[in-house]
Design brief:
Strand order of the largest sheet: 4-3-2-5-6-1-7
Strand content: 5-15%
Low-confidence stretches: 516-525, 527-531
Mean pLDDT: 87
C-alpha cells in the first residue's frame, strides 16, 4: 500500500472520529513519522490538535502543536502509569494521543484487567464527541471482546516499492554528498529495490549499511550481499524460508502441470491486467509423497519469475511458547512479507496446516482456529501472491478450505506414466552430467512401474554409487536397472491410499498433472505471446 494511501486512511478514520484506533506494526518509528504527517494536514492544523506520545518508561509528552515553544517537546507530569494517562486524555478537548505498547496492561499474562478495560470503554464514549483520537501502536493489539465495538484495528503494511525506491534514492544521494562511491545504473537500482522489498524499514537500513561497508560503496557487488542478508532476515521470522528456484527443465513429464504454470505466468503480465484478466490464485497439489509436489513450487518460481517463500505452519503455531496471540502476530508478519514481495507462497502439507479447527476451542482457546481463519481469509482476499499448497492426505479437508477463490485449481499428481518416467530418468541423468542418449530409457521406464519421481532419483543415485564402487567406471543402464529392482515403491505399500486419493481427485474434479496438456495445442503459442507482452 502506498504511503500516501496509509496517511489518507488514517486521516479519514481520525476525521470520522473513531475514538480508539489500534495500529499493528513492529515499525514504531516509521509509524511516528506517518502520524506526524497526518497531524500536519491542514484539517488537523486548523483545529490546532496537539500530537502526544506515551510510553510506560517516559510517560506522556507533547511532540507537536501550537502550544510548544521553540518546537521543544514537553513532558507531562504524573502520566507514567496506564490509568493516569487515560485520566489525562479524558480531561482534554482535542488532540491525537499515541500510546505505545499499551495492551500488556489491558491483558497482563493473557488475562483481561476488567477495571482498565472498563475505563478504556468509558473513555471511548467520553471522547466520541470531541476532536480526540487515541491510537495504540504495537506488534499486535489483542482481540478483547469488551472493546470490539470501540476499537478500529488496522495493519501497517511493510514499505512498498515506491517507499523502498525513495529510501534508496535518499541513501544514494547521501553517499554521493559524502564522497562515497556510488556505481548504480537504472537497471541495478531496480534490482536493488526488488531485493529490498519484503523488509521492514530498519532492516532495509541495516542491510544497505552492510552492503555499503562490504563493497566500500554502493556497487553491483551490493546485490548478492543484500539478497543473502534478506534471506537471513526472512528466516528470522521463524515461519518463512527463502527457497531458490529450479529451472523448468528439471521437471520431468507432467505436461498438464507445465501448461498450468505457463497460464499462471501469463495472468500476472501487464498485458493480462490491461485486458482485465485476474491473476491466478494458486494451486493445491494433491498426491503421494515423492511425486514432485515440492519441486513444482521451485519450478513455479522459475516459470513465473517470482520469489518463493515457504511457510512453516508448525513454526507459526509454536511461536511464543504457547502465549495466546503470538501465532496471530507470526502469521500476520509472514503474510505481510509475502504480500509485499508479490511472490509465491508455498504451504507444504496443507491438510495438516489447516487441520485442528474443530478441536481448537478445547485445546488452545481457539488460537489455532483464529490463525487458520486469518490465513484462509487472506488467501481469499489477496490477488498478488501465487499460493501453492501441497497435500498428501486430503480426505480430512473441508470444502471451504479448497474451494475456488482460495485456489484456482486442484491438481492431482498421480504416479508418473511410462512416458513421464522416461523424462524423469533423463532429467536426473542430466543433473549428474550423464548423457541420457547413452541409456536405454525405455527399459528403465518399463522396470519402474509404480515408482514415484523420488524413487526414480534414488535408483539413479544407487546405480551411480554402484559404478563408482566398482572401480569408478562409467554407470550403465544395467547398474540403474538392478538397483531399481531393489527398491520397493511406496505405491505397493500404500495401494489403498493411492486408490483413495484417485477417487478423491475424481470426485473433486481435480486436474491431472500428467497427460498431453489441458491447453489445446493451438493455444500454446498464445500463452507464450502473452508472456512476451
Amino acid at each position: 500500500m502506498p504511503l500516501e494511501k496509509i496517511v489518507t486512511e488514517l486521516d479519514v478514520l481520525i476525521r470520522a472520529r473513531y475514538p480508539l484506533i489500534a495500529i499493528n506494526t513492529a515499525e514504531e518509528a516509521r509509524f511516528h513519522r506517518i502520524i506526524q504527517a497526518v497531524a500536519q494536514l491542514k484539517c488537523h492544523r486548523e483545529k490546532d490538535k496537539g500530537l502526544f506520545v506515551w510510553s510506560r518508561t517516559i510517560g506522556l509528552r507533547q511532540i507537536a502543536g501550537s502550544e510548544l515553544k521553540g518546537g521543544k517537546e514537553v513532558s507531562l507530569p504524573d502520566t507514567h502509569d496506564a490509568t493516569s494517562v487515560l485520566e489525562y486524555i479524558g480531561q482534554q478537548k482535542k488532540g491525537l494521543f499515541v500510546l505505545c505498547d499499551y495492551s500488556p496492561y489491558l491483558a497482563p499474562y493473557g488475562q483481561e484487567d476488567p477495571q482498565l478495560v472498563r475505563r478504556l470503554r468509558e473513555l471511548a464514549w467520553e471522547i466520541k464527541g470531541r476532536h480526540i483520537n487515541v491510537l495504540f501502536v504495537e506488534r499486535s493489539f489483542p482481540d478483547l471482546a469488551p472493546l470490539e465495538k470501540e476499537i478500529k484495528t488496522m495493519e501497517l503494511p511493510l514499505p512498498d516499492e515506491g517507499e523502498v525506491s525513495a529510501m534508496l534514492t535518499r541513501q544514494m544521494q547521501s553517499l554521493r554528498d559524502g564522497d562515497v562511491r556510488v556505481d548504480v545504473d537504472e537497471r541495478l537500482q531496480e534490482q536493488l529495490v526488488q531485493a529490498l522489498l519484503g523488509l521492514a524499514e530498519s532492516d532495509i537500513e541495516n542491510v544497505l549499511a552492510k552492503a555499503i561497508i562490504s563493497g566500500s560503496g554502493l556497487t553491483p557487488d551490493a546485490l548478492p550481499v543484500i539478497l543473502d542478508e534478506k534471506k537471513s532476515v526472512i528466516k528470522g521470522t521463524g515461519a518463512l524460508t527463502y527457497t531458490h528456484a529450479e529451472p523448468a527443465d528439471h521437471l520431468g513429464g507432467y505436461h498438464n502441470l507445465r501448461h498450468i504454470l505457463m497460464e499462471a505466468a501469463a495472468t500476472f503480465t501487464p498485458a493480462a491486467k490491461a485486458y482485465g484478466v485476474e491473476p491466478m490464485k494458486g494451486l493445491l497439489m494433491v498426491g503421494l509423497p515423492g511425486c514432485g509436489k515440492d519441486l513444482t513450487k521451485k519450478i513455479a518460481s522459475s516459470v513465473l519469475g517470482k520469489s518463493l517463500l515457504d511457510l512453516d505452519f508448525g513454526s507459526v503455531m509454536g511461536e511464543g511458547g504457547g502465549v495466546i496471540g503470538s501465532s496471530a502476530i507470526t502469521i500476520k508478519r509472514a503474510l505481510s512479507i509475502a504480500t509485499t514481495l508479490k511472490g509465491i507462497l508455498g504451504i507444504s502439507e496443507f491438510e495438516k496446516a489447516v487441520g485442528g479447527l474443530e478441536s481448537s476451542a478445547k485445546t488452545d482457546g481457539g488460537e489455532t482456529a483464529r490463525t487458520i481463519a486469518y490465513l484462509l481469509n487472506w488467501m481469499q482476499e489477496q490477488s498478488d501472491v501465487f499460493v501453492i499448497g501441497t497435500a498428501n492426505d486430503v480426505r480430512g479437508l473441508a470444502a471451504e478450505q479448497t474451494r475456488q477463490g482460495r485456489f484456482s485449481h486442484i491438481v492431482f499428481v498421480d504416479l508418473p506414466t511410462i512416458a513421464d518416467r522416461r523424462e524423469i530418468f533423463a532429467v536426473h541423468l542430466r543433473k549428474r552430467e550423464r548423457d541420457p542418449a547413452r541409456f536405454d530409457l525405455d527399459e528403465l521406464a518399463s522396470v519402474t512401474e509404480g515408482f514415484s519421481g523420488a524413487e526414480i532419483e534414488a535408483a539413479v543415485k544407487a546405480g551411480l554409487l554402484r559404478a563408482f564402487i566398482d572401480g569408478e567406471r562409467e554407470v550403465t543402464t544395467t547398474d540403474i536397472n538392478e538397483r531399481a529392482q531393489g527398491i520397493q515403491p511406496t505405491s505397493l505399500i500404500k495401494r489403498e491410499q493411492v486408490e483413495s486419493l484417485r477417487n478423491w481427485a475424481k470426485d473433486h474434479m481435480a486436474i491431472s498433472a500428467g497427460g498431453v496438456g489441458i491447453t489445446p495445442m493451438s493455444n500454446r503459442t498464445q500463452i507464450a505471446r502473452a508472456l512476451e507482452m
